[in-house]
Each structure stands twice: as structure tokens, then as C-alpha cells.
Design a protein that fits this description.
Shape: globular
Number of domains: 2
CATH class of the largest domain: Mainly Alpha
Helix content: over 70%
Distance between the termini: 50 Å
Number of helices: 12
Low-confidence stretches: none
CATH superfamily of the largest domain: MetI-like
Structural class: mainly alpha
Length: 270
Amino acid sequence: MTARTRKRLYQTVGACFTAAAFLSVYTPIAVILALSVNDSLKAYAWEGFTLRWYADLFATDVMHDPIMNTLLVAILATLIATVLGTFFAIGIHALDKTRRTRMMVLNNVPVVNPEIVTGISLLIVFSLLGFTLGFHTVLIAHVFFGVPYVVLSVMPRLKKLDPNLYEAALDLGCTRFSAVLRAIVPNVATGILAGALMAFTMSIDDFVITYFTSGSEYMNVSTWLYAAIGRSRSFTPAAYAYNAIIFLFTIAAIIFINSRKEKKEREVRR
């Protein structure tokens, strides 16, 4: 086999693996988008184009509570996790190398830990503490797994900062807390934003941990869908519309962020 033939073979195999990866990722999304405009109650039958499921999503109360629960927990968990994660990252960065490494190992445990293990562990802890499962336990759980993502997003930005910046702020009359807020936080704002977006994304689509910590009275969209699919009478194709809206909103946000980034890069080059 010649070098050119071997190169073509590698390129073909690589293209096949790439195509398979894209198909496995985007095929379910394409199916959801198609079902959201399918004028049929049956997922396997196409009966024409319609937007009535989008109208039902906002006009009926079937998914109102699960959607509000999902958004409320995601927003609150993101805000709390972003604040805690930012200050945790600043504190970890201030440690010596050995302690910093140990703290980062502890921080990464919830990230690499299987969600089912985290969910069961939190369920056991809440049960031992006598907590009634519901909104507050779900919020605590989402903050718990959101904080590590914020820390991981902020730490690289902290490593790029001038190590004398904090001391300079103190010399200019700032208190320790105001020095952190005025000198450090603005310079790691992009990392904080990235961590907040990651925490929000992880919270709004979580199922496993929410399932174990929500109890029977509280449901977000994912746990509601799981229960509704088992009871076909309560399932509505408006769920397809909800997922399509989330997907389109995500795409719009990515395009907006990338366009802003490219615009700033062009301004810097000028």
C-alpha cells in the first residue's frame, strides 16, 4: 500500500467516523424539530405541517408548572452557583500549589462522578437530614453540581491575571473584599459568564439528579416528560415544541456570542 493510498484510506475512515458522530448527535434533534411541526398525535405518522403545538405550549396549562419550575430552579441555581463558584475559584487560586491541586481534585469529583451516583448520594444526605424532597432540595442539588463548572471556567482566567493586581488594589485603599470585586472580578468576567452559561445549561436539562431529589410533588420538564410518556393520555406534542424552542434559543445564543467575539477581535486588530 502506497503512502498516498494509505492517506486516502485514513481520510475516508476519518470522514466516516465524523459523519457517524454528527448523525448520532443531530439526528435526535432533527426528529424533535420535525415532530414539533407535525400535525399528528402519533410520532410515527406525518399528517402535515402545523404550528399548533407551539400555540398549545403557551395557551394551555398542561406544561405551565413544569416549565416554570425548570426555569426558576435553573435561574436561581445559576445565580447562586456563579457567585459561590467565583469566590471558591478565587480562594483556591490564592492557595499554594499543593493545596490548590488537592482542592481542584475535590472540585472535579462532582464533574466526573456519574449523575446517578450523585443523585443517590444527595437523596441519602437529604433523607438523613430530614429534608422533605421538593423545590428546595432540587435547588440545592443543582447548585451542588453547578459550582464545579463555574470554578473550572474561572480558574484559567485567574491564572492569566497579574499576581500583583490584588496587592495594588489594597495599596490604593481598597478593603480585601472590595479589592476582589474591583480588581479581580472584572478581569475574569468572561470566565464567570462562561461558567454561568455552563451551570444554566446543566441545570435546565438535568434529569437524573432531579429525579432522585425532587420527590412526588415537584416536577421539572424532564421528570414530567418521563412520567407523561408512561401515561400516554397526559403526554402532549407541545413538549416537542418546548424542546425545539430551547434548541433554537441555544443556537441563537451561540451565534450572538461568537459574533460579539469576532467583532471584538476585529476591533483589536484595527
